[in-house]
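Lab notebook, bench 4. Still working through the backlog of constructs that have no structural model yet. Next entry is a single chain of 292 residues. Request: give me the structure tokens for it.
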Amino acid sequence: MSLAGFDSARLAAVRPAMQRFVDSGDIAGIVTMTWRHGEIAQADAQGFRDADARTPMTRDTLFRIASMTKPVTSVAALMLVEHGRIALESPVAQWLPELANLRVLSDPEGPLAQTEAARRPITLLDLLTHRAGFAYHFTTTGELSAAYENIFNGFDATVDPSRWLEHVAALPLIFQPGERWHYGIATDVLGVLVQRIAGMPLGEFFRTRIFEPLGMTDTAFCVSADQAARLSTSYAIGADGTRHVEDHPSSSRWLKRSAFRAAEADSYRLPTTISFSRACCSDAGDGKATSA
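Model written out:
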């Protein structure tokens, strides 16, 4: 393993610094990697994959990466731009007609019934930059928050993308398209857009166009039976400040593939640290990380 130009003494400080988080109980375990110019300078695994079972963390442990899937979905969309299938300024209603006649809340905190017409269509750039006017239930308040909670957590795992998008289109936007940045389900909508333009499921596009070319064989929307033993236990901190198991490998919801999840465009991919680094290095246009 090369130091890739890093100072050896400062790299050596990474392990004890991370170990303090494990010893304090803030995290069960951690995998770190330092990469530069296509070379891995430091890679380490500390703590436990499962704290109760005292299963050691390893560098090939699988993690749920939540919204770090958003960059992958965005890369998929930009690949379609690169191939001339869509432009950044293209109104997405050309492929997503459900979004052709959207309404916008007159007051971001007001009732759902008080709306005005969208002044312009949503573009691909709006979706990529979270300026489309969408929200999450935890980034808005009032009636819109409750409606988004149902959209995102109520039935997204049991319907197809078109039905999910119909429900999204029935909600008013929180702001006019392009008016301001607001964190929301824009990347979920972007995932449906990629599926429609590419003519294939989003996971299939990811696998064939991004992950297989990068050698990311561990990255997927679910965990296979032979990978389950490497899946980390996911913990959450309760209101009382104590750590509890949020998702365990033996009963993980990621062991089974749902027919459709709106969240798949922006959450819960399951790569190893080094596997995910390959996507980051590729996104940066700075080469591909090698194994170490």
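Notes after review: The domain at 70-198 is CATH 3.40.710.10 (Beta-lactamase). DSSP finds nine helices and seven strands in the chain. Flag for follow-up if needed.
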